[in-house]
C-alpha cells in the first residue's frame, strides 16, 4: 500500500546551510494492509525523519514514494490532500495535535471539516459530523463529556485516545506511530496497544510502529526493520 523505494535524506547544516549532513540512505520499505512494520534504531539514527518523509511533510533527497501503486513523491494540491487523509500520524506528544484554546469537540470537528470523514461528499454537516464522533468515542472507551474539556484538562492516556480518534476520522489506511505510547504508564500503554491491535484487525490498517522498546515492537510487529547510526536499514529478527 505505502511503499518507499531507495529513500535518502540529509539536512542542510552549517552557518550558511551550505553542507548537507546525511541522515539515512537507500531505505526501502512496504507497509501492507493489516500488518505492522516495526522500526527500531539508536537515538538520532533518523527514525522520525523517515516518518516525516513517508508522511510527505519533508521531501526525500533521493528515492520515491508510492501509494496503491501510484507514485506520490511529488504530489501537490488536492491529490496531496487525498494522501494526507489516507496516511495519518500519531506521536508521543498528543497535545501538539490540539489547539490549547479549543475544546476537544471543536478540535475534532475542525479536523473533520478540514480532512473530511473519508466519504466522497464534499460538504461538511455539523450534525452529521457530531453524530459520527459518538461511535468512535465509544470504541476508544472515552466518555462523551470529555469533549467539552480543553487539552490541559485531560490525562495523557485520554489525550492520546483523542489524538487517535482524530487520526481515524478521515478513514486512513496507514498509521505512522512514532513512539506513540512511550510517554504513558505501563497499564495505559498496554490498553492503547491492545486498542491499536483491535483497530488494525477491524479496519485492515497498515502500521509503521516506531519505538525504542524492543519488547513492545516485537509484540506489535509482523516484521521489524532496524536503522543503524550510519543511516542504513534492514529487516531484522528481534530476540
Ligand atoms: N530539522 C532538522 N535540521 C537539521 N538536523 C535535524 C533536523 N531534524 C533532525 N535532525 C537531525 O537528524 C538526525 C536524525 O534525527 P531523528 O529525529 O530523525 O532521529 P530519531 O532516530 O527519530 O531519534 P530519537 O530516537 O532520539 O527520536 C539527528 O542527528 C538530528 O539531530
UniProtKB/TrEMBL annotation:
Can you tell me which family this protein belongs to? Belongs to the ABC transporter superfamily.
SUPFAM superfamilies in the record, alphabetically? P-loop containing nucleoside triphosphate hydrolases
Q: What is this protein called?
A: Peptide/nickel transport system ATP-binding protein
Pfam families per the UniProt record, alphabetical? ABC_tran
Keywords of this protein's UniProt record, alphabetized? ATP-binding, Nucleotide-binding, Transport
Question: Which residues does the UniProt record annotate as the domain ABC transporter?
Answer: 2-239
MF terms from GO for this chain are: ATP binding; ATP hydrolysis activity
Keyword field contains Electron transport: no
User: What's the domain of life for this entry?
Assistant: Bacteria
InterPro entries assigned: AAA+_ATPase (IPR003593), ABC_transp_ATP-bind (IPR050319), ABC_transporter-like_ATP-bd (IPR003439), ABC_transporter-like_CS (IPR017871), P-loop_NTPase (IPR027417)
Its Gene Ontology biological processes?
transmembrane transport
Record the organism.
Anoxynatronum buryatiense
Amino acid at each position: 500500500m505505502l511503499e518507499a523505494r531507495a529513500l535518502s535524506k540529509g539536512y542542510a547544516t552549517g552557518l550558511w546551510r551550505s553542507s548537507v549532513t546525511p541522515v539515512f540512505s537507500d531505505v526501502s520499505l512496504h507497509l501492507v494492509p493489516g500488518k505492522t512494520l516495526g522500526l527500531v534504531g539508536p537515538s538520532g539514527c533518523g527514525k522520525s525523519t523517515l516518518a516525516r518523509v513517508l508522511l510527505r511533510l519533508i521531501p526525500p533527497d533521493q528515492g520515491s514514494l508510492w501509494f496503491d501503486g501510484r507514485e506520490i513523491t511529488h504530489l501537490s494540491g488536492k491529490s496531496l490532500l487525498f494522501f494526507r487523509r489516507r496516511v495519518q500520524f500519531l506521536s508521543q506528544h498528543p497535545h501538539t495535535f490540539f489547539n490549547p484554546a479549543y475544546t476537544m469537540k471543536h478540535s475534532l470537528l475542525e479536523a473533520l471539516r478540514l480532512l473530511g470523514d473519508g466519504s466522497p461528499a464534499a460538504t461538511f454537516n455539523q450534525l452529521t459530523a457530531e453524530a459520527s464522533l459518538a461511535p468512535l468515542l465509544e470504541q476508544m472507551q472515552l466518555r462523551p463529556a470529555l469533549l467539552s474539556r480543553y487539552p490541559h484538562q485531560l490525562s495523557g492516556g485520554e489525550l492520546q485516545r483523542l489524538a487517535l480518534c482524530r487520526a481515524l476520522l478521515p478513514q486512513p489506511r496507514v498509521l505512522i506511530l512514532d513512539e506513540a505510547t512511550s510517554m504513558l504508564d505501563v497499564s495505559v500503554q498496554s490498553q492503547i496497544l491492545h486498542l491499536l491491535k483491535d483497530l488494525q484487525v477491524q479496519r485492515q490498517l497498515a502500521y509503521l510502529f516506531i519505538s525504542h522498546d524492543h519488547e513492545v515492537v516485537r509484540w506489535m510487529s509482523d516484521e521489524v526493520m532496524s536503522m543503524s547510526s550510519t543511516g542504513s536499514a534492514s529487516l531484522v529478527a528481534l530476540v
